[in-house]
Amino acid sequence: MIILLIYGEGPHTIAQIFIPLAGLFYLKFLEVKRYSWMILASLSIMLMAISNPIGLWAGGMLLGSIFIIFFLYKANKKEIIFRTFLIFILSYLFAAFWYTPGFIQSDLIAEGGGLAKMLFWHFPWGISLAGLIIGVFLYLIRRFVSSPYIATLVFWFLLTFFVIVAFYKYGIEFAPQARRYVPELDMASVALLAVIASRISKTIHKKTKFADYIIPLFVILTLFFTFKTWSAAKYFTSYDDGANRGNVEKRMNQYLSGKILPLERIFLSANYSFWINMQTDTWHLRGGHWQASIHPWEPHAGYQIISDKDGEASFYWLKIFSLKWILVNNFGSSVYYRDYNYPDKFEGILTEKEETIDSAEVLYKVPLVHEMAGPVDLNKIASLKVPQNGVDKEALKLYVSWIDENSSQFNFKRLNNDRYIIEGITGKNEGIRIAMSFDKGFRAYDENAKRLEIVKDPLGFIVIRPPKPGVNKVTLVYKQTLDFYLGWFLFAGGILLAIFLKVIIKENDGKN
């Protein structure tokens, strides 16, 4: 867990606090119809969801396990469905100020194109196969396990184990970013082992008076054998030793901060992206850490740059996202999660480079014609192709040629995160392409405060139609959309619904 915090999994770790709480309160509400359990379960799920989407999916596996097992074991199935529905509705309404419809539609977990597209991608093969395997699990659990509580823990463990093994062994993702659920597997394992140890202790207790000492002895031995792990954790968290990894990232951020100018972008690997995001104001592609990115091609570009061996396609993506710098971790880098599978692919493609504070870390400079803004031919937008995938080099090359065709330079100035000034010369039938994700909240105005048309280009970036050829000064402003206010409206509706349910719910102390 400490290492997770060191390498940028803080929000995920926070979400893990609420996963067992959500499971406990949900289970209690299924057993006893009490208003307090319902509210506590809904709030725990809400906090889990807004902490981290990965935590939400991981928590969903626990909650799903509880629902499936209780539905299978308990007689009053309609009541289980009804209570689960109440929890689901309240949880979403409580989280609606964050999980707005637009937020969910954009890219809930990234590495795809939104929640709906991800579910469609998994159907029918992924869902059908998972359903078949789950069915076999349930049959075996129901046959050999009599307690619904033990059955829930067994099913939760098997489900999490299956998701992780399917990814690492066969490359199949039954849940988004399946490689990140290892801590939840540990959590399920510990819970299952605790129940097993408790059962063993009770069995032994009937036969010997020393049973009360078995569990404490087990805990002491476990702590003894994990002492080295704690020593390693201290090594990771200490900044006193100049050789430790945390200090490498800190010193690299200091180096990059002095090298990269304001409004210039850089691409970094996983743990560097977290630390530079936390410690500096440097712009980089993974500022959102691949979670809830609104740009449809950002995760594909990141995958190509890091994981694929095609250097040419990676080069095109660097130019498309106006990434002036890229820090590549070669083999031998002191950074633990260096990410790059083919670091040599940039040799010969990116010629300007320099060694950094680590000889195995190379900083490349990408030759950009334009950085944040530049003129583009509006008549050619229709001829541009939407890439079939992240390695569609024909479409990518055509797009890069389009944005690089006119070398006229624009001045791009940031007033704040919601207001930008763009100034430059455009020719006839030319627009201004901004290397920022298109969003309906953006508004563009000319010098006379007249609103200008904004369109989305084939790769999801902003293109502004200026009022006239020649010198143009445009103000780009972001304003909250109806979607934002809808989220808060739904949140208020959730509060009112909770009050209403307090009045109408008839609490039942009897177990379901």
From TrEMBL:
Recorded superkingdom: Bacteria
The UniProt record lists the keyword Transmembrane helix: yes
Transmembrane segments: 6-27, 56-73, 80-99, 119-141, 148-168, 210-230, 485-505
Keyword list, A-Z: Membrane, Transmembrane, Transmembrane helix
Keyword Membrane among UniProt keywords: yes
Name this protein carries in UniProt: Membrane protein 6-pyruvoyl-tetrahydropterin synthase-related domain-containing protein
Organism listed in the record: Candidatus Nealsonbacteria bacterium RBG_13_37_56
Source lineage: Bacteria, Candidatus Nealsoniibacteriota
